[in-house]
Amino acid sequence: MRNTIRGMMVLSALASALVLNAQTPGQAPAQTTAPAAAPAAAAPPALSPDEIVGKYLDAIGGKAAISQVKSISMETSVSVMGNDVPGTTVVVDGVGYRSDTDFNGTKITSCVNGKGGWQVNPMTGAADPTPMSDDEYKSARDQIYVGGQLYDYAAKGNKVELISSAADGYKVKVTNKDGVDTTYVIDPTTFLIKSTVRKGQMQGQDVDITTTYSDYRKTDVGYLMPYAMDLDLGGQFQLSIAIKKADLNKTIDPAIFEMPKPAAAAPAAAPAAAAPKPN
């Protein structure tokens, strides 16, 4: 499910639309004296990638709880540039992911299914449904899985590699079958995901998209999920996402994940008939 929530990074469509108006954060003032070094914390126990993944899955409720979740419907609020943007996110396991937001009356939609992805973003000139590029889809299609990249990762064609073990967390890199990398930082005490880093684009430039997770809550089936996420897009743009309500296992019509056809243009008016000439 971590990846499902990370899936809301598709809201970067909103970020991309707004970034031209965003201010780049200023540099922090230089320190005149270096702070005293804190004592080094002890490194966590040495664990294999499979052991870390197993402890993470146990921490969020275990495979039995995850397997009970067939769909998730969320009401969200995105805090961006001083605005609170309402939205909804729907995931049907293995079928589709869809995020809809309403920014001051402008409807923005991002959707991925098992065949491709599409989006509607009038703020970037795409008022009609527009297919995602192949690269966008490869980066986003993991979002259709409730359990995320780490749940049954081998069966999904994902590879897991331990990058480092430190007091602040185990750093694990997941490479999906399309070669897209995501780095996870997993808390060595709780084994919950603290943050993820994935490459993305901002104004045509490659940037690191860092998502920090907090406010984990247990659902009715015993599944634990984060209700708060803070996104940083390459230090250029930040937004926060809060889940206001989450419903599990609602019946969802899979048709919502299919790209609708553009609205038909109104037919041209027929030329007015010439008035009859007087006799």
Roughly how much helix do the residues carry, as a percent range? Answer: 10-25%
CATH class: Mainly Beta
CATH architecture: Clam
The average pLDDT value, as a whole number, equals 83
Strand segment count = 13
CATH topology: outer membrane lipoprotein receptor (LolB), chain A
Approximately what portion of the residues adopt beta-strand conformation?
35-45%
Short description:
This protein starts with a helix and ends in a 31-residue tail after the last strand. It contains five helices and 13 strands. The protein has helices at 2-6, 12-18, 49-59, 63-68, 134-140; strands at residues 71-80, 83-92, 96-103, 106-113, 117-121, 126-131, 159-166, 169-175, 181-186, 193-202, 205-218, 224-233, 237-248.
Strand and helix map with partners:
Elements (H helix, E strand, L loop, with lengths): L1 H5 L5 H7 L30 H11 L3 H6 L2 E10 L2 E10 L3 E8 L2 E8 L3 E5 L4 E6 L2 H7 L18 E8 L2 E7 L5 E6 L6 E10 L2 E14 L5 E10 L3 E12 L31
Antiparallel strand pairs: 1-2, 1-13, 2-3, 3-4, 4-5, 5-6, 7-8, 8-9, 9-10, 10-11, 11-12, 12-13
Walk me through the structure.
The protein is mainly beta. It has a single domain, classed as Lipoprotein localisation LolA/LolB/LppX (outer membrane lipoprotein receptor (LolB), chain A, Clam). Helix content is 13%, strand content 41%. It has 5 helices and 13 strands. The chain has helices spanning 2-6, 12-18, 49-59, 63-68, 134-140, and strands spanning 71-80, 83-92, 96-103, 106-113, 117-121, 126-131, 159-166, 169-175, 181-186, 193-202, 205-218, 224-233, 237-248. Strands 6-5-4-3-2-1-13-12-11-10-9-8-7 form a 13-stranded antiparallel sheet. The N and C termini lie far apart (81 Å). 33% of the residues are buried. Residues 1-13 and 16-32 have low confidence and may be disordered.
